[in-house]
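WARN retry 2 of 3 for item q-0093 after timeout on previous attempt; input resubmitted unchanged.
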Amino acid sequence: MQNSNATAPAPKHYHDIDGARSVLMFLSVALHAGTVYAPARPWITSNTDRHEFFDWAIFGLHLFITPTFFFVGGFFAVLLLAKRTVGDFLWNRLLRTAVPLIAIAVTFNMLELYLRWLDNGGAGSPVDWFVSENFAMIWRTDEWQLHLWFLVSLLPMFALAAIIHGVLPRASSIRKGAVRLSDTLAKYVSGPGAFALFILVLAGANTANYAFAAQVPGSYDLLFPGFQSWYKVVSEFPFFVIGVMAALSPALLKALCAWRAYMPFAAAIALLLQPYALPEHGPMEGWVMLFLNQLSMWVLVLFILQFFHRYFSEGGPRTRWLADCALSMYLFHHCLIYIYGQWLTKVDWPVWLEFTLLTVAAATTVIVIHELLVRRLALLRLLFNGKTDIEKVRRAPGFFRSFS
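OK item q-0093 returned
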């Protein structure tokens, strides 16, 4: 006879995947600090101290940071839907994604865009800016999003996942078929050679996704004012789908995260070469470069998953603190990078020193904001982290206790 007082098993926590998401959000600070000194981004600030290394760095980081976010988004969407109703899931995503998105968009993003307006010849108070054509243009286009574009792209993906989950019965053949497909795929990609072939197939699927999206009439136009184009919305969708499949099949997740000795070398080559399709490429060369670009993305994303599975699976207070602070770091840092980057135009220090100070100053400021405000005030916790667990987080170890 089963003991009625038996405690239900604790839900599995994927510290490795959570850790990957958290560290990459922190790494975004260095990515955006690099744009201040990248010759390819001269409009970021008026700073004239620039170095080609930062072009290489920011394009390299772009290859894997946001694609990994979309994989993680798909993965956790399935886990949430497995234990929540569709309504609960949508409410959770509204709080965790839409509310922080809107809160930062109308505060820190507006502050940054106002400063950009001033730096580009605008004159007047914030009220003057609010009634200017520049302010209206920001909201008609997708410029208001700045670094938040990936959160905007995630929202329709979450909605699609909720619709599919709500429409399909629990015992539907489509659900079972998706699980069987994911399990079967796991069997075929477990070997080292098969896994390498699988990465090529993934890169081909991404390239086909781009080719299909480009054929949609008006695919580069905004779907509606202030949103995004069809092309941009679906560009990262394959990463979300594989995240969904990994959540459906523990065997596939295990196959994706299994350490393979050649992956660090493959990731290093992808990061060094950084293939991108450029306007000067002809049609055939452009498609080849696009395929190689997507191949590099998948190599790096899968290496990140394997690396964190190998070294960050145990969890602990540091991992929990990083996971808690990660969204604050991503939301707040962009405006701070711009403000501090503008201040550093007034000094003539070595570019490497300026970049280091800019990165550390922005990250430190966000940590202070998170520790003193977001973790202490319920309203700010809700607005900028989408959470209502203020009493629990107050009792949890903070930055110094977690890392001491």
